[in-house]
Design brief:
The protein is mainly α and 171 residues long. Helices cover 54% and strands 5% of the residues. The protein is built from six helices and two strands. The chain is globular, with a radius of gyration of 16 Å.
Length: 171
């Protein structure tokens, strides 16, 4: 197993905090939840599409969320000129599709690096700062809420995948 132990990933968000701290703590909670769902498994288990007929894997979810962190916080909100990590114009779902030969340890490191880089990219921005989206301006506040929703949805997928792999359930 090349992935980390589950016990180190997550703490409960505070029940009282200012808006930014609340968003950040819920984002970190969901990041940690995904890491917990991916922990203590073999590379083969992480690459296993365990809910047929879907080809979704835990490793694919981890790679997807690294790409999503980069896209929303660094590329869109902070305006950095970066390319996607795993997808291309020819393979828009590369993060999901190309896991068979993926390096698991590298994917975990990339995910963690992208989360840290995302936090740093928007550290000095205010929640009300905006950037131009397809249908008009988007605020950093919207990005935080969207990312929490994105993780919550995919962590539900991760729950099902993990239970099918080894029977593990719960947070």
């Amino acid at each position: 197993m090349t992935n980390p132990d589950a016990s180190q990933f997550r703490s409960d968000p505070p029940r009282t905090a200012d808006e930014r701290a609340m968003y950040q703590s819920w984002l970190e909670f969901h990041r940690g939840t995904l890491l917990r769902k991916c922990s203590d498994l073999t590379d083969g288990q992480l690459k296993s599409a365990s809910v047929p007929p879907s080809n979704l894997t835990l490793l694919g979810l981890l790679r997807h969320m690294a790409d999503v962190e980069r896209a929303w916080f660094r590329i869109r909100a902070a305006g950095l000129g970066l390319a996607a990590l795993y997808s291309t114009d020819d393979d828009e779902d590369g993060e999901f599709d190309n896991v068979a030969d993926a390096d698991v340890a590298e994917a975990f490191a990339t995910f963690k690096d992208e989360c840290l880089a995302a936090d740093e990219a928007v550290r000095t921005m205010s929640l009300g700062d905006t950037f131009e989206g397809r249908n008009g301006p988007i605020s950093l506040r919207w990005v935080y809420v969207h990312m929490i929703e994105e993780y919550a949805r995919h962590n539900g997928h991760a729950d099902l995948l993990r239970e099918c792999i080894d029977g593990a359930t719960g947070a």
